[in-house]
Amino acid sequence: MLVYFWITIGIGFLGGFLCLKAKLPAGMLIGAAVSVAAFNIATGLAYFPEWMRIFSASLIGAFIGDRVTKEDLLLLRHVIKPAIILLACMLGYSILSGSILSYHSAIDLPTALLSTAPGGLAEMALVSIDLGGNPATVTSIQLLRLLIIICFTPAIMKIIIPRFEQKWGDACLEDKTTETSPAVVSDSAAPPSTKYKNLFLTLSLALSCGTIGYYSRLPAGALIFSMASVGTLNIVTQRSYMPRPVRRMAQALNGTLIGNRIQLADLIVVYHSLPIILTLIAGWLVLNVILGVMLYKASNLSLKVCLFAASAGGINEIGLLAEEMGVNMTQVMVLQLSRLVGVICLYPTATRLIIRLFTG
């Protein structure tokens, strides 16, 4: 089995690298998942041991925790109200749309709820394994939503912004606060020896706490514990460090984990449920505009920032789109990150409660 394990890993990394070079959204993750899934469907020889779940989940948790800084917390003080509104509305729509998807399709309730959650593709796929869902179906639907939102978001901005600019004038394009966003401190100037020490500390902490979280039997325990520990390390000491190659390795490993579980029957189920899935994704686009306007009315942020912050796309992809369109990326990323962390911490428990309510 060890030989098949390394073959599976090699195929996953190769597929991830090719998709990364093609500049696809979440390229390493998607490429690894698709290539390993194809290998598994064709041969049935893909192998990814259970203990690797702890490792891959801990890496993803460290990846998220490494983004949480003191500067984010300082800025969050000024956007706490819109962040709560954003999280509450997105959670509400996720639960509603997941329930509708399960009722009108052959997709089971845990899988449907996690397929519609705005918590990140890799993260929700990992949570689905803990809650007895189907990670292949979750990945397929999450990917479809991600691609549609990324493709339509720029067009929505170009349509919505001029209309509100005519109504409210230039005020909707400017922050209504005189405070500037805090600068993000970069560790790129640190000497290599310090970087390696910080990387070792980050990975050791993430893996040890992730293991504790896994055996705690809490929903997504490994992911949440590693994320919380690395986030705390970064806030208190600024010593967490997750370089880009390690982040890409984490994405490739999680893609391999997902692809290892994909079967042809999973893809057929998604295909037959496509009309309702596309309808619910269209609902996310409408909700994006509604929430963006609500956030603008409830905060001191510009309408552009609020619209991007309310988008249910991937945090990296939305951040890059915001930067390309001249929007304050720091504010967008803080709101997106607070939503991501909130969903990861709250949604697994909420999902488990809903499952118990409907299944007894």
Set out the fold topology.
Layout: H1 2-21, H2 27-43, H3 52-65, H4 70-103, H5 109-115, H6 121-130, H7 135-168, H8 192-215, H9 221-237, H10 244-259, H11 264-272, H12 274-298, H13 303-309, H14 315-324, H15 329-359
Helix pairs in contact: 1-2, 1-10, 2-10, 3-8, 3-9, 3-10, 4-5, 4-12, 4-15, 5-6, 5-7, 5-15, 6-7, 7-11, 7-12, 8-9, 12-13, 13-14, 13-15, 14-15
Question: Can you give a write-up of this model?
Answer:
76% of the residues lie in helices and 0% in strands. The protein has 360 residues and is mostly helical. It has one domain (2-359). The longest helix is centred in the first third of the chain and has 34 residues, at 70-103. The model is unreliable at 178-186 (pLDDT under 50).
Mean pLDDT: 83
State the domain count.
1
What share of residues is helical?
A: over 70%
Number of helix segments? Answer: 15
**Distance between the ends:** 39 Å
Structural class: mainly alpha
Computed over alpha carbons, the radius of gyration is 20 Å
The shape, in one word, is globular
Order of helices and strands: HHHHHHHHHHHHHHH
Tally of strands: 0
- Could you describe the largest sheet, including whether it forms a barrel? none
Low-confidence regions: 178-186
Percentage of residues in DSSP E strands: under 5%
